């Protein structure tokens, strides 16, 4: 039995097979061929040449800007049928470039309106793709005159603000639009919607608008209309809600010949809710009577600086009592008010006052007062305040008063 632990003689060595240079070259070439073959198989399996069908491809128009510069515009583009084509190429190339396949329609050299046939061609974004079948050679479209006009933009407020009225004022209430005459004729005005529910301080902003047709219906789509601006700028001024009395007053034309009897004139309602700015110092809202009548009639409230009259409070119903007016001088009795405590006032008890009033006004219809509040002992020249339900105006008058 051989001893496995027995050492071999020192001169005994294990031999190794040696490759020649030609054998090593053959091995390298074989490895390269196998690698290329494997790579080709992977490419073929993962990125094969295929053919696909593209549906509803994009249609582009060359020469359209020049057409508009000549005063024309294309219509009917939205009515073109869906165009499909079959394109072949490597799968990776198709994935990269298929969105760039489009139909090119040349609209050059148009000299008149009406129906025109324009040449069309399929454009490929790269030579790596091949058009197999499909496409079109021409399309038929209408050419219309290019029209331009201005439309008015109205403001429509949405939302409710329980504490404030908001007056929205457009920086410019018109917008210029252009497009095919058939579409432009169908636009009457635009409406910008502003939500006022959260507005509590003066603000400004840009607002989009919707176009409306002659029948007051919103236009939901347009093929050719372009607007000078897609938004309008608005200033929103905040007015505090407040109820104020209605004060009937005559128009300038009626005031030349008539006076209103405020004690007998009836207003409905007598109070209106309006918006008030801090600078407003009035005590009521004027309602302008602009015609002679003795029956209940609708009249408009008169807006003044610092006051906002909402749309649902623009008018009130008034039964006016008017009288022909004249200028007359009456001797009226004077009453002192707000006499300082502990003092007495010496003054002329009556004075002549020139009034513009109803023809039948008597001294008993006129109230004349002097206000002595804040005056010290001594002599003073004090204005007489004159009023009356049928007194339109009076010439200023004053008297001497001595406080003791």
UniProtKB/TrEMBL annotation:
Record-annotated membrane-spanning stretches: 25-45
Record's keyword annotation contains Membrane: yes
Gene3D superfamilies associated with the record: 2.170.120.30, YbbR-like domain (2.170.120.40)
UniProt KW keywords: Membrane, Transmembrane, Transmembrane helix
Pfam families from the UniProt entry: YbbR (PF07949)
Domain of life per record: Bacteria
Keyword hit for Transmembrane: yes
UniProt name for this protein: YbbR-like protein
Phylogenetic placement of the source organism: Bacteria, Bacillati, Bacillota, Clostridia, Candidatus Ornithomonoglobus
């Amino acid at each position: 039995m051989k001893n496995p632990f027995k050492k071999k003689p020192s001169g005994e060595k294990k031999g190794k097979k040696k490759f020649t240079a030609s054998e090593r070259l053959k091995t390298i070439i074989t490895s390269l061929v196998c690698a290329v073959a494997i790579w080709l198989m992977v490419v073929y399996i993962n990125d094969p040449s295929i053919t696909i069908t593209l549906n509803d491809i994009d249609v582009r128009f060359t020469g359209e800007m020049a057409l508009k510069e000549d005063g024309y515009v294309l219509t009917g583009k939205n009515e073109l049928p869906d165009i499909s084509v079959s394109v072949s190429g490597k799968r990776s190339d198709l994935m990269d470039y298929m969105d760039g396949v489009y139909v090119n329609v040349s609209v050059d050299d148009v000299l008149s309106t009406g129906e025109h046939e324009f040449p069309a061609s399929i454009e490929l974004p790269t030579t790596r793709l091949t058009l197999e079948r499909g496409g079109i050679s021409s399309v038929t479209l209408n050419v219309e005159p290019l029209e331009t006009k201005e439309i008015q933009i109205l403001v429509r407020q949405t939302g409710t603000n329980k504490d404030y009225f908001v007056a929205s004022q457009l920086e410019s209430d018109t917008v210029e639009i252009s497009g095919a005459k058939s579409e432009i004729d169908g636009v009457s005005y635009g409406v910008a919607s502003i939500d006022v529910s959260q507005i509590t301080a003066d603000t400004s902003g840009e607002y989009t608008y919707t176009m409306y047709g002659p029948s007051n219906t919103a236009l939901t789509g347009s093929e050719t209309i372009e607007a000078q601006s897609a938004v309008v700028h608005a200033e929103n001024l905040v007015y505090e809600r407040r109820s104020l009395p209605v004060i009937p007053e005559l128009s300038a034309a009626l005031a030349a010949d008539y006076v209103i009897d405020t004690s007998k004139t009836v207003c409905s309602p007598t109070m209106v809710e309006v918006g008030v700015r801090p600078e407003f110092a009035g005590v009521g809202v004027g309602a302008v009577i602009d015609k002679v009548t003795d029956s209940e009639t609708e009249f408009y409230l008169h807006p003044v600086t610092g006051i906002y009259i909402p749309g649902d409070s623009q008018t009130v119903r008034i039964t006016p009592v008017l009288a022909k007016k004249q200028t007359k001088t009456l001797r009226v009795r004077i009453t002192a008010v707000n006499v300082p405590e502990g003092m007495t006032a010496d003054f002329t008890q009556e004075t002549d006052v020139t009034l513009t009033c109803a023809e039948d006004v008597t001294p008993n219809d006129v109230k004349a007062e002097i206000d002595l509040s804040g005056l010290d002992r001594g002599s003073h020249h004090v204005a007489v305040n004159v009023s009356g339900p049928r007194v339109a105006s009076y010439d200023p008058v004053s008297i001497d008063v001595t406080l003791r």
